[in-house]
Structure formats: C-alpha cells, structure tokens
Amino acid sequence: MLVADTSALVSLATVDLLPPVLAEFDVQTTETVIAELEGTVEYDDPAEDAARRVLRHREHLTVHTVDDPRFESSRIDIGEGSCAVLARDEAVDFLLTDDLRALPELQPLVAVRAAISSIVVNALVNRGAITRCEARMKLEEMADARDWLEAPIYRRAQRLFEDEPLGSE
Amino acid sequence: MGTSKVNFRLPTRLIEKADVAAKITHKNLTELVTEALREYLAEIEDEAFQEAVVELYLDDQIGFEVLKEFIGRQDAESVRASKTLLDHGGELADDLAEL
User: Fold this and answer.
1) Is residue A124 classed exposed, middle or buried when 0-12, 13-18 and 19+ CB atoms within 10 A define those classes?
2) Which of A20 and B43 is assigned the larger pLDDT?
3) 3-state secondary structure of A63
4) pTM (2 decimals)?
5) In Å, how far is B21's CA from the nearest CA of chain A?
6) What ipTM describes this predicted complex?
7) Burial class of residue A163 (count of CB atoms within 10 Å of its CB; 0-12, 13-18, 19+)
8) How many Å lie between the alpha carbon of A12 and the closest alpha carbon of chain B?
9) Alpha helices by DSSP H, A30-163
10) Most-buried pick from A8, A112, A166, B6 (CB within 10 A)?
11) CB of B19 within 8 A of CB of B30?
C-alpha cells in the first residue's frame, strides 16, 4: 500500500501516469489532500489541470480522514502532515511525495520508506506497465515541470534508462 | 568562518590598480579580493547556476558542505535526501514493483 500526498498525485497526473499507477498499486491518501486538490482547482493554480485530473480518479483512491495532522512546519504543509500520520499505519509500505523540500523532515516522521515519483516510474517499468522509453520521456517531462532544485533530480533518474534512445519502441 | 591561504597569479596591471584601490578605500588586498569575489558570486548565482551546482553534487564532484555554501542548509538537505533516494532508486523500485 502506498500513501500519496498532493505533490506526488499532481506530479503523476501532470505526465499522465496516474491511471497506470492506480491500476498497479493500492494508493491511499487523506481528505486533507483532497481538499488541497480542490483548492488548487478553485484558485487558478498552475497545477490546476493536473489537480482536476487527480480528482477525476478519486474513486480509485482510498481516502482517509486524519483528524489531527500533528506534523506541520515551514516545509511540511498540512496535507503532507496528514499523509505522515496515515503512513504510520503498519499496513503502509511507502510514503510517496514529490515535495523534495519537505522530504528531509518527512522521512524521520514515518517508519515506512519514502519514495518520489521517479521511483514509481521505475517500478511501473519493472511491472511492464510502461516501457523504458516511455519512462525516460515521462521523467524528462517531470524535470521540465520542476524548479532548479528538483529538475536535476528527475533528469538524473533518467540514467536508469539511458540505453534506450528516445523515440525507440 | 575559516580562511585558507591560496596561491595564484594575477595580471600585473590588475594588481597595480587593486593596490591603488586598496589605498583609496583603506582596505588591504585580501579584503578587496574577498569583496570582489563575493559580489561576482552573488551576480552569477542565478537559478541555472544553482542547478549546475546541484548537478555537481549529484555527480559526487562536490561535497555536502560546499553544496550548502551555495544553496543554503535547508535546500542542501533536500538535495541530499533526494540523492540518497536516487542512489537506492533501483532497489526501492524493485521493492515497490513487488507490492
């Protein structure tokens, strides 16, 4: 089971990978994350389209109510905090986040391993849900959508698929 | 902040001008060069530069302490945590794929 926060869901939706991820994995999230996505749609945010796409797949997400997110800081927002609480459930295998700035503070809060969407892309390849060439292109798209701190991380993740020239398959 | 002794050659004319500037501004040559270097670094440290610094760290060409000097502690910690995930990306992806 994966717990995904707003950043991860939006990131996967931005590159149209949410449907295969939801088909391959048991993805769970919180009401707080859903509220954040609804807010993104409402307020003309740059991530509006992606948030709308996530909400269209809401029935494929298991959504939990977390009454007391507890964890909030300058880097961890209330949605991420609620996911950290949910990820304390022993049935959870991974906490999925694409908020790299929150990552160092989120990791110590949860006993489970954290993953970013580049790792999910890799897992989709391992499961045969997408090709290596598609994975490279999706990671490139992710990097293009990122800022100076995050873009190099997603570009670097493409190295796993470097033997596949773009446009092959 | 610690200091290190460096040894490099500069054009003679530039040194002469710097000596005059040092006299006029009542600074020594070290202060003048330090100030000029700080201003230069501040000027070139745009987002493309910071991105290049992150890439050097991901390539293990600079260490965490140098990365921190350029992008600040919090962002450096984010890059370090992300790099750790990337370095174990294959293994994490295998475990994830097996769920």
Assistant:
1) buried
2) A20
3) strand
4) 0.82
5) 37
6) 0.86
7) exposed
8) 16
9) 31-42, 48-56, 78-86, 103-106, 117-126, 132-144, 151-157
10) A8
11) no
User: A118-142 pLDDT, tens per residue?
Assistant: 999 999 999 999 999 999 999 999 9
HSE on the CB side for A32, CA within 13 Å?
Answer: 22
Tell me the C-alpha distance between B60 and B58, whole Å. 5
Nearest to A92 by CA among A63, A69, A70, A113: A113
The percent helix, strand, coil of chain A (3-state, each to 5) is 55, 10, 35
CA distance A114 to A98: 10
Among chain B residues, the shortest Cα distance to A25 is held by B99
Q: What is the C-alpha to C-alpha distance for residues B88 and B57, in angstroms, rounded to an integer?
A: 16
State whether residue A23 sits within 8 Å of chain B by CB. no
- Tell how strand A27-30 and strand A113-115 pair up: unpaired
The pLDDT value given to residue A67: 78
Q: Is A166 left (phi over 0), alpha (psi -120 to 50) or beta?
A: beta
